Amino acid sequence: LNKEPPNLTFRKKDKGGINFVSTVANTHLDLDTVKAICNEYRIHNADITLKYDATADDLIDVIEGSRIYMPCIYAVNKIDQITLEELEILDKLPHYCPISAHLEWNLDGLLEKIWEYLDLTRIYTKPKGLNPDYEDPVILSSKRRTVEDFCNRIHKDMVKQFKYALVWGSSAKHKPQRVGKEHELEDEDVVQIIKKV
């Protein structure tokens, strides 16, 4: 929970033995340790590249490929029934959000934290000649938030008819900015798609 996947590459190959490359100084793993771990999994030929100071557990996680990395928020309820000293102790905990469901305290804070941890982007549509629709945003992952991803989310044929897009918001250099399919959108941008005639 609340960990990122290890930043190392592991690729099996047919021959050539274990090729181990580290782009940073490594204190936990060396070639002998990597070979021993690979032998446990009956892997005798592989390319392994470490991009940070990885541990043996990180390498095992990548070899097994079965680990799921997931963000987690601890919603601590009934904060209306604890003292300020106890609340200060809770403040030292990572990834937590204090709430009171009974008195409806900090529910908006919990909602903001959920939105942040899900790492989503809201994009609003603007029909030609009308005001933007702020009621029903198009939700995109923060990893896939280009104008092309936006078009595919609305309809798969929209990319074929795409001419250009007008963008208002923090990703635009000026309001509106004319952009292509590769433009990266930011949270709460407004997009108007112009189709080919």
From TrEMBL:
Keywords, alphabetical: GTP-binding, Nucleotide-binding
Record-linked CDD domains: TGS_DRG1
Residues passing through the membrane, by range: none
Superkingdom of origin: Eukaryota
Organism: Manihot esculenta
Keyword Nucleotide-binding: yes
GO molecular function ontology, one term from the record: GTPase activity
Protein name as catalogued: TGS domain-containing protein
Pfam family, one: TGS
Domain OBG-type G: 1-119
Domain TGS, first and last residues per copy: 119-195
Keyword Iron (UniProt): no
